[in-house]
Design brief:
The complex is a heterodimer of chains A (113) and B (116). Chain A is mainly beta and 113 residues long. Chain A has strands spanning 4-7, 10-14, 19-25, 32-38, 45-51, 56-59, 62-67, 72-77, 86-93, 101-103, 107-112. Helix content of chain B is 0%, strand content 52%. Chain B has strands at 4-7, 10-13, 19-25, 32-38, 44-51, 57-58, 67-73, 76-81, 90-97, 106-107, 111-115. Chain B contains no helices and 11 strands. Chain B has 116 residues and is mainly β. The chains are: A mainly beta (113), B mainly beta (116).
Chain lengths: 113, 116
């Protein structure tokens, strides 16, 4: 099955700086890679996703890049703000269009004022 | 749009009892619903995938007789934890999508289960 590795587990950055979270996946059949933000005790919220037919996607301060050959994808947050503090999860589907998501272990992003 | 609700938001039960959790897609028809569990400060683990009108597909290591899933309509899936034990205490979260694994999954708010 799919295996998703996520690094770092904790990331502390100064407000206004950029943050980068990286994930790798194992199943070459995976073709959908979402990123979720989860605040304590709340549901995961989709912040951006990318499908395997594109290499990069951007939405305001958030961007995701995908390298299918190397099987890794990254989340980039620019101009970080205090409200960006949360746990971020990357995920990948199992391929074949029918399966649920395999999640990385999460990155606790801390924005220092 | 794409709102998913869960009920109850939290439940405390005695060991040996059964607990039913409902997951509803409020403004769209969910062909596929997924059930995840999340232990404190850990990631989400997929338990099972359910498609409307058919039997759920369980992930390896998840007991189908203990975690009963029913997806009777395009807007409702239920998870019943049978004969719950303290080790079943967790955060159970459902998600719903229009189709399969390449469609966006919208998550419910989760249900905190505590088994005494």
């Amino acid at each position: 099955g799919e295996n998703v590795e996520q690094h770092p587990s904790t990331l502390s950055v100064q407000e206004g700086d950029s943050a980068v979270i990286k994930c790798t996946y194992s199943d070459s059949a995976s073709n959908y890679f979402p990123w979720y933000k989860q605040e304590l005790g709340k549901r995961p919220q989709l912040i951006i996703d990318i499908r395997s037919n594109v290499g990069e996607k951007k939405d305001q301060r958030i961007a995701v890049t995908l390298n299918k050959t190397a099987k890794h994808f990254s989340l980039h947050i620019t101009e970080t703000q205090p409200e960006d503090s949360a746990v971020y999860f990357c995920a990948a589907n199992a391929g074949g269009g029918a399966d649920g998501l395999t999640f990385g272990k999460g990155t606790h992003l801390i924005i220092q004022p | 749009g794409a709102v998913v609700s869960q009920h109850p938001s939290w439940v405390i039960c005695k060991s040996g009892t059964s607990v039913k959790i409902e997951c509803r897609s409020l403004d769209f028809q969910a062909t596929t619903m997924f059930w995840y569990r999340q232990f404190p400060k850990q990631s989400l683990m997929l338990m099972a995938t359910s498609n409307e009108g058919s039997k759920a597909t369980y992930e390896q290591g998840v007991e189908k007789d203990k975690f009963l899933i029913n997806h009777a309509s395009l807007t409702l899936s239920t998870l019943t934890v049978t004969s719950a034990h303290p080790e079943d205490s967790s955060f159970y979260i459902c998600s719903a999508s229009w189709g399969g694994g390449t469609d966006t999954q919208y998550f419910g708010p989760g249900t905190r289960l505590t088994v005494l």
